[in-house]
Amino acid sequence: MFSDLVRYIKDVFNNQEFIPLHEPRFIGNERKYVLDAIDSTFVSSVGSYVDQFEEKIAEVTGAKYAVALVNGTNALHLSLLLAGVEANDEVITQPLTFIATANATSYCNAIPHFVDVDKDTLGLSPKSLRNHLESIAEVKDGFCFNRLSGRRIKACVPMHTFGLCSRIDSIAKICKEYNIALIEDAAESIGSTFKNQHTGTFGLLGTFSLNGNKTITSGGGGAIVTNDENLAKRAKHLSTQAKIPHKWEYKHDAIGYNYRMPNLNAALACAQLEQLDFYVKNKRQLNDLYFNFCSQNNVTLVREIENTSSNYWLNSIVCKDKTERDLLLTETNDNGVMTRPIWGLMNELSMFKNSPKSDLSNAQWLEDRVVNIPSSVRLDG
Ligand SMILES: *Cc1c(COP(=O)(O)O)cnc(C)c1O
Q: Which fold has domain 3-25+276-373?
């Protein structure tokens, strides 16, 4: 049933024997910068590549400040702490996301509160968010409370799924009305913009991941971006064990974390950032190719909504039902074309099964149907 699709994907990737879902590409200054970092002896959390990476990612995103961290999960954890999330607070997020989004909330001993997604963006639905808050939330003494649980709703963490932009302007507006801190999980969306504004810059803080499977990688890595100077300073301080800078003394003024990105990883990150424009252009071309095929073959491909530009980190097909999805997964994976279903819903995992939630019909519908197809940057395509 999907043999034409299998053939098409193989063709697009030059008939490689096995076509992975997403491979990193090192075609620029990666070796040069990493060797330079080794030669400098500054391989750990202090070094010029860390500073350069922060400057560059601030420039790329248009944020005033950036702080380089060990990975995207830490970036989320630290952002939630910086936003003032405390034990027993609730943090709104989408059920359809990678587990790190929900885990970061648990690290603060807070409780994820799941709100439905939109079918087209696969990201948090402003319509569901508004309806849900109207029915369960109230603002008292400047704080938003869940009337059913009595707990404070301190933050909202929408995620830009597979690089597609959520309706982030509407989400930001609702968060403002309810006095909920907005933290964007932009782990998958470096290079994606909403009305020409980079994802991660619409709220108080935004987080990125440079894991090996993402659009650009530093091996492992992450970053926080913000326009608030105090938050940026605080992020840097807390990510370096909250040590008060001094030539020889060990003095710390808070419980800090060892979350700072090492210079060795930052060297790789700097070289990869130089390739970002090319990678995104290349990935957008791949989405166009897939779209041509899909529209001629009665297959639904997920595409960006109006006024947004996706990095198309991972391309996705929406199957007609679960049976068709399973056929697609079997036929592709049996023939050397790696595909993968979208994540299972967070609210169905044992750790989060008692978490508060809205109606989640769209997320449930998508969970049964969405499949990611190979999306690496093509070097000779
Ligand atoms: C990759 C990812 C993260 C976590 O990033 P790491 O760098 O792997 O810790 C967080 N959220 C989402 C949505 C991701 O895809």
A: Aspartate Aminotransferase, domain 1 (3.90.1150)
Protein residues with CB under 6 Å of any ligand 1 atom: 71-73, 97-98, 100-101, 159, 185, 187-188, 209, 211, 222
3-state secondary structure of 60: helix
Domain with CATH 3.40.640.10 in the chain: 30-273
* CA 190/CA 199 separation, integer angstroms: 7
Q: Are 317 and 288 in contact (CB under 8 A)?
A: no
pLDDT in tens, 166-193: 999 999 999 999 999 999 999 999 999 9
pLDDT of residue 125: 98
Place of tokens 């200054």: 29
Residue 255, both tokens: 């419980």
Output the CA torsion 144→150→154→160 (10° steps): -100
CATH annotation of 30-273 = 3.40.640.10
Give Dmax (Cα) for the chain: 68
- The residue-averaged pLDDT of 237-254 equals 96
Could you tell me the two tokens for 109? Answer: 């001993």
CA of 352 to the centre of ligand 1 (A): 18
Q: Please, what is the angle between helix 48-61 and helix 30-40, to 10°?
A: 140
Distance between CA atoms of residues 84 and 290, nearest Å: 43
Span(s) in the chain for CATH 3.90.1150.10: 3-25+276-373
- Using alpha carbons only, give the angle 221, 333, 190 rounded to the nearest 5 degrees: 25
Q: How far is the CA of 138 from the centre of ligand 1 (A)?
A: 31
DSSP 8-state code for residue 377: P
> How many CA atoms lie within 13 Å of 200's alpha carbon, on the beta-carbon side?
33
pLDDT class of 45 with cuts at 50, 70, 90: confident
Helix (H) or strand (E) holding 261: none
> What are 314-370's pLDDT values in tens digits?
999 999 999 999 999 999 999 999 999 999 999 999 999 999 999 999 999 999 999
Which residue bears the tokens 């060297």? 267
User: How far, in Å, is the centroid of ligand 1 from the Cα of 183?
Assistant: 14
